[in-house]
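W.,

You were right to be curious about this one. When I first looked at the sequence I had no strong expectations either way, so I just let the prediction run and decided to look at it fresh. Below is the sequence, 355 residues in total, followed by the output.
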Amino acid sequence: MGLDDPVSCLSVALERGRTRLAYLGVLGCAALAAALGGCSSAGGTAKAVTTSEHSLTIAQARQGYNFYVTSSTLAAEQGSSVKGLAIVADGQWSITHAQYATLSSTGTPVPQYRYGTPTFYVPAQSGFPQWFVVEVPVASTNGTPQAAAVNTVMAFERETPDALWTLNGSAVLDQPLPDIALDADGYAISVSTKDSSLLLPPNLVGATQAAVVDEGPAAPAAAAIASGPQTTGLYATQAALNSSYTGQGLSYQWLLEGAAVPQFDLRTADGGALVIYTMYLNTTIEHPGNVFGPPIPIPANFAPIATATTGTKGNHGVAANWTFEFATVDPPATAHGAKAVVIAAAGAPTYGHGY
């Protein structure tokens, strides 16, 4: 498709017969102009949230974080999924729920963690919901006492004044977190999901990543998002699975898509943004044409979360879906040649079903 044609910037169909709502399906010309050229558009004025109100103070955010650490530690010590799931939400709930199911089915103790010194990024905000982001080293205390800590970015939210603070997103950093912009009072600066001063509006970062995961490094989206384990690497993993299943006479399809849950966007010191969001990787393994045939077993890493209700085999096929949480650095539109970079990720199998 020629990117100079505005129509070609709007939609693309999956050659395997499924329509994909991904980079070219939702990323309009304005977002592509800086990165790819062509598809010119006037674009709106960037609107960062700069309110000086502090309905959530840094001290209150620290209390919310400490509440989570204390509560999650107690839940792990007691092996209580009820208590553990009460303090997580959105994609983090899906991942935690699947982890509890896996641990229960295998008789494995609930892992416990040691938290280092946190760094808080609390945006100036008023009203509800309230949210903040923490960067903190986290190490497992199960097994080896001296397990190495991994730097983790965590997003917390409280929807109403009488609601509990919940962990809504958590991802392990594989490179340093960029400097986050702070106002004169030491508060972080939040970013509009439609901010046009960035290479990609934050609400399209996930779709851009998805296009590369679905299509590979040759996708037009690769001009705006960097290669790495969670983009071209994830594509390579899925393509290898496709080859393996094809060799078994089966059909394999995958689709990375956005989740209808809040994302958390902070301004970086260079004028870019840190974007924290949730995605679903949906996969199907079928007899070609979805015909009836010999039972197809659910992948081994999904077996612990499968039940007698969902089934561990399918005579037509199986669905095996993941939930992922990502953090991506979205550069300013003025950064010549820059690409968005996925710097943190975490995920787990969260749904398996035979049909």
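Here's what jumped out at me. The chain has a mean pLDDT of 85. And, maybe more interesting for your project: Residues 13-49+192-354 form one domain.

Coffee later to discuss?

I.
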